[in-house]
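Recall from the previous chapter that SMILES is a line notation for molecules. Here it describes zinc ion.
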Amino acid sequence: MTKTTREPGRTIRLLRPPGADGPGIFRITSRKKDTYYVFQEIPCEIGGRGFAVHRLGLGTLYHTRVGVPADRSCECMGFMAHNQCKHVQGLTILVERGLV
Ligand SMILES: [Zn+2]
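With both inputs in hand, we obtain:
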């Protein structure tokens, strides 16, 4: 299930799919450091699929949108600075693999 994403060495793994019983959990491993995220799909009416994502244990919540490039967005600093981020890249991979 683990696969390299666009940043060399960074991988994402779905630990728990989101469902009726609660949000999903995925883990991003980068430079040997694991970060866990809780996420849930939210209604999105402007194109793409919307997800609420936050780092486990911390309160910062990001609304992340994935889809064709024009439909990708995220509220984090990384996306604002670079127009891409690990949240969008990670969720894009999970969507492409049909996991969410
Ligand atoms: Zn982001």
